[in-house]
Structure formats: C-alpha cells, structure tokens
Design a protein that fits this description.
Elements lengths: L23 H16 L5 E6 L4 E6 L8 E5 L10 E5 L4 E5 L2 H4 L1 H11 L4
Antiparallel strand pairs: 1-2, 2-3, 3-4, 4-5
Length: 119
C-alpha cells in the first residue's frame, strides 16, 4: 500500500524567509553607529547585501577597499550563539550575540579610541 502524498503535517525546519534582510529597527541601530563613525572620519562608505541565509552591512574606510567590518544577521543561529555578529576585515568574529545593540558595542569602543586620539 502506498502512503498518501501531500504536505507534511509539520514543517521540517523553522520558517526562514527566502531572503534575509535587516528590518527598520535594526537599520536604525546600525546607522546610528555608522553616522557617529562617519562624523569621526573613520568610515566613509557602506554596502548592504541581502542573501538567502544572511544579511550583511559592510563598512568601508574607502570605497575601493575591502570592508573594515561586516555586521551580519544569520537567523539560523538565533537559538545558538545569536544571530548578530561583527566580523573584522580578516574574517575574525569580534562579537556575536542575540542583541544587536550589545553586539555593536565592540565598534563603539573603537569610536571612543578614535575620538580620544588612539590612546
């Protein structure tokens, strides 16, 4: 006997949108830090990418360079390490967590050093 064909009674994986992107609140938090870094003369350009499994906000000192930092959102890591991460130019994860504002504090420290003259 052949079992009936049809949709599975339960989804096999949690619902993940086809394209991951930052929402308005998340962009507000990111652009707040970005604006302060631009005012301090540290950053000059940014790029946003929305991909299937992650969203990336990349910041640049100059347009033609590799990004200084990448702010990543990976919803699949929500239950584990946290879906937000700040990644350095060398690919090292500087901070990861569940709260975007707390994750971005690693960049705030760099802003304080830039304003204080690097001390």
């Amino acid at each position: 006997m052949i079992p009936p064909q049809g949709p599975a009674p339960f989804p096999l994986s949690p619902a993940v949108p086809e394209v991951v992107s930052f929402d308005r609140k998340e962009l507000g938090v990111i652009l707040s830090v970005y604006g302060r870094m631009v005012a301090a003369g540290e950053w000059r350009d940014y790029a946003i990418a929305s991909l299937r499994d992650l969203a990336v906000f990349s910041v640049f000192r100059r347009t033609a360079e590799v990004p200084l930092y990448r702010i990543e959102k990976r919803p699949r890591l929500r239950a584990r390490q946290g879906m937000y991460a700040v990644v350095g130019a060398d690919g090292q994860v500087l901070r990861r967590g569940h709260d975007l504002a707390l994750v971005l504090r690693v960049l705030e420290r760099k802003l304080i050093r830039a304003v204080d003259g690097g001390s």
